[in-house]
Every structure is written in C-alpha cells, then in structure tokens.
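Both lines are given unchanged directly below:

***
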Amino acid sequence: MTTQATARRTANAAKKTPARVPRPRTFRSLSPEQISAVLELLKGAQSVELKLSVPDAGMSSAVRSLGLDPLEGELRQVAFFDTPDLALNRAGLVLRARRVQAKPGDAVVKQRPVTPSELPRKLVATEGFGVELDTMPGGYVCSGTLKARIPDELIRAAWAGKKPVQSLFSKQQRAFFASVAPSGLVMDDLAILGPVNVLKLKFKPKGFDRRMVAELWNYPDGSRILELSTKCLPNEAFEVAAEAKAFLAERGVDLTAAQQTKTKAALTYFSKQLQAQEAAAAR
C-alpha cells in the first residue's frame, strides 16, 4: 500500500471516529454510606454549615450574579498556630486567632473530626463550645470548637512576639488543647502561621430565603479562595443543601470545581515558608 493511500485511510478513520474529549473533573455526590454517616453525626451536631469554594476563574462572575458589594464587607486577619511540620494539623487540631475590624477578636481551639456522642460531657457543657457539621461537594467533617473573645491589642502583641501564644487562650481552651494535643507539645512551642487578610460579607441574595456569607481569603503569594456558605439547623440540612445548590446553579456558580479549604491552604503556605526559613538558618 502506498504512503498516500495510508494517509487517506488514516484521515477517513479520523472523520468516522471523533477524538475523545476528556470529561471535566467533577466532585462526586455523597455515597449511601456517607449519607448514613452524616445522618448519624447530625443527631449530635448543634448546627450545619454548607460550604462551597469558587475557583479563581469564576469569582468575578459569581460576585456579579450574586450582587455582592465588596464595600459592605468586613476586614479581618486570621493567623494559625502549629509546628512548622504541622504536627497539630496531623493530629486533627486547629488553633486560630482572628482580628476583626473595629471589634474584639477571638481565639479558637478546634478538634476535627469528632463523633459528638463520644465527646466528654464536661467539654460539651463548657461555655463557648459548639459541635458543627461542615459539608461541601463530596465531603463533610464534624468539628468540636471552643471559642472565646479576646482584645485586639492582645492578639497584636502575641503576633509580634511580645506575648506568649498561650496568653491568647482561656483556661478552658488550654485544658481542651492539653487533653487532645500530641504528647509533649505545649502552646508556647507553636509557631505563628499567618496572618491572612480576609474580606467577609454577609448578604441575603434575591431568590434565596436565607442569609449567606462570602469570604475572600487573600494569601501572601497572590492566590485567593472565595468561599460561599450558609448555616442551618441539623434537621434542615438536606433541604437547605438542595435549595442552595439549585439557587447557585441558576446564578451560574460552578458547583463541580475541585474544592479548596481556607485553613488547609493557609497552613500549607505558611508551613512551607517556615520550613524554608529553618533550612536557610541551618546552612
């Protein structure tokens, strides 16, 4: 067979068999096993937060379609506390301090995942403690969080190294931390990871009968995460999730994009920075 004949046959075959176009990657829905697990967790949760992160390419259109006005937002700064290699994160612990524009700040000790029925009764009864189920496309996590308000000047002093890390946390929070932290690790051994500048906007969009929250996290390397969320009671979770999904889809918000979590992105970024600094100092 001649070279020209071979070329013709190849061309004809290509016409009959269109090239395969890769299907866009989507997040799967919860499996029946996951739904069963969520139903069990809902029995002990006090609230549910439905979350969706919007990819950078879709942020501008999401802001327009939802009618968000950045000038109505509230400025915040968030910093985390962990070891450079994220020992707390691996143990399921998150320590955070947050500054809020023209308001007192707050400090949080969070454990996740937790099983509500297995939490100590004394801890659950502690003022400021809450159990929340966070859900997102294809995933969920139940957290136990102990939160306390703190003066802004104390946060600034601790971030500047003028106050020890433990000064940001109450007696109850320090006890909670000690009960679940890796052996031998104390608060004052932790490094500061942050801060990250955040713009938070509470709004009630037309066509959706619930308040929503938009948070834009701006990381030092120029990357961003826009998270949309709404809260509800545990017995409303599936209904509100369906309503929110339908509403956002109608507004053209991408529900199939890979999800990014604000905390993980912050910890990963600052952990790399700290480890690079340690490596440079060791040379």
Notes: The radius of gyration is 23 Å. The beta strands are 47-54, 74-82, 93-100, 103-111, 129-136, 139-150, 191-203, 212-218, 224-232. The CA atoms of residues 276 and 282 lie 10 Å apart. Residues 30-282 form a domain with the Hypothetical Protein Pfu-838710-001 fold (CATH 2.40.320.10).
